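Notes from the 1:1 (GR / supervisor)

We went over the backlog. Supervisor wanted to see one worked example end to end before approving the batch request, so GR pasted a single chain during the call. The sequence is below; no edits were made to it. Supervisor asked that the structure be written out right there so they could see what the output format looks like.
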Amino acid sequence: MKRFFLIVFILGLSKLTAQIHEVGIFLGGSNYIGDVGKTNYVAPNEAAFGILYKWNKSPRHAWRISYTQSKITANDLNSDVPGRYKRGYNFENNIKEISAGLEFNYFDFNLHEFGLKVTPYLFTGLCYTNYDELYVLNGMTKKDINHGTFAIPMIVGVKSNITPSLILGFEVGSRYTMTDNLDGSLPKNKNLEPLKFGNITSKDWYVFSGFTLTYTFGQKPCYCAQ
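Structure output shown during the call:
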């Protein structure tokens, strides 16, 4: 966390006089997609929150850094898949994510101009996610070690300026992780390999859905040709 804030602070100081910046919060929910519980793609069942920073490079794109955390949970008893329902496994895990990448606006979002502006947007980049390695023993989910994995975020959203300095957005973002053990189905610990279950050829996903509220500051750029 300290390194994240340091990076944001340095970026803010280095570009403050040349571009417009945004800092703000994310509030919403999370859900998991994998080998336990429901198979719905967007079905938030736990609270999620985070902070974010954007450097608006042009009316069409911005560099974005964020930190988000949440608990993810799932229960086979909530699944429509008969095999999962009969198995009856459940788990919870805590995830902490740092992401960086490029946000692309479908329409020009020029904060130098006055008036209401609305645009859909896309975001992708790279995430690093901290989580607990789990395993299931005698039907009970247990923690092994704390671990980390990379993930690819795929976010779609829509945003609008609600005041000259505040921008409100709504987004849904899935993360394709490089692990299959957010749920305890494929432990990395070799001593726990006999406990693996589910589809061991697919990776786990998690989804954040919610609202962003950012405050803009810095000199407003005109995005003129140099």
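Supervisor's comment: The CA atoms of residues 38 and 79 lie 4 Å apart.
Batch request approved.
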